[in-house]
Amino acid sequence: MIASACFVKVPRTWFIVGLLLALSGSVTAHHSIVPFDTNTFVELEGEISEVSWRNPHVRLKMLVQNQAGETEEWELEGDSANATIRQGLTRDSISLGERVRIAGNPSNRGRRELLATNILLASGVEHLMTERPRPWRWTEPPAEPVFTDTGLGRSIFRVWSFAEAHRPRQPFVYTRVAQVARDAFDPLTEMPALKCIAPGMPNAMLNPYPIEFIDEGEYIRLRVEQWEAVRLIDMVSQEIPDNVSPGRLGYALGHWEGDTLVVETTQVDFPYLDDAGTPLSEEAKMVEQFSVSADGNRLNYEVVITDPPNLVGLAIEDAAWQWVPGTEIRPYQCEPEVELSGG
């Protein structure tokens, strides 16, 4: 039984409560965002009928009564199991048959699906179902931790927690060939991530997960939690060695410009630039900059992408990670997704 103090009766029909986030200009959106309307925010109330706690996304099903008094089943998609655990929400937090309130972004294809961002449990405890910045809806948010002295100065060599989603400096401009490919791409069936196919660069870096830099002398090892990706950044060579073959993450040459780590990556062998079907050619080049803030608490990121067959001019994305003591890179075991069945 849910206490009346926790809930106000919410009609079954969707209602817009505000514009939460405008990502229409982002062409490299994290793959679960693509089939959802991120300009619309709705709430649903119902009983949990199924729970699938996994990577790359937690999936729930919820029984909701519509205005005609009929029961409909909704598909709810959250962030990864790793991300929700860091938000204090685990598989044991949710019980089958529990009546909950869910908030998030609806399907942009008219399906009974929701990209869930907030959940209010029967106990009255609210959790975020994502590590992306989202407002708390029904309860007061917990106090933000304050870190005044990292003890690491401006060193990049540590684990960094997700802080800000990547965003384009300005809308990307596509060539005609690339636009035709994007128009023909169906993210609900063709996204490689749905089949647990890890992305190539630059998409491998544009995700809301922790990363870690490890100093190995001639190389910097960059670990990314999502897909358990590992990039080796060559800090010695001036150009790519002759015996290197193209690969999913390409070959990375790095150097320091003051306290900023600059990485140039080429020889990427992957068909897509992003999760929206933008093709990527063998001519693609990415130049990244990683810089730690003066207080040591923030890692700012910039990637400049050039790919003449598919992009007109430069494509620039910005993102950020933050220092949260105790954060660890967790194992990431992807389970292939099945197509959502809500109609």
Structure description:
- Strand 5 and strand 6 form a beta hairpin.
- The chain is mainly β and 343 residues long.
- A 9-stranded mixed β-barrel has the order 7-8-9-10-11-12-13-14-15.
Question: Summarize this, please?
Answer:
The chain has 343 residues and is mostly beta strands.
Question: Descriptors for this entry?
Answer:
343 residues; mainly beta; 9-stranded mixed beta barrel; 5-stranded mixed barrel; 3 helices; 6% helix; disordered N terminus; disordered C terminus
**In sequence order, what are the helices and strands, one letter per element?**
EEEHEEEEHHEEEEEEEE
Helix content: under 10%
Strand content: 25-35%
| Rg calculated over all Cα atoms | 21 Å
Mean of residue pLDDT values: 85
**What sort of overall outline do the alpha carbons produce when their principal axes are compared?**
globular
Largest sheet: 9 strands, mixed, barrel
Strand arrangement across the biggest beta sheet: 7-8-9-10-11-12-13-14-15
Structural class: mainly beta
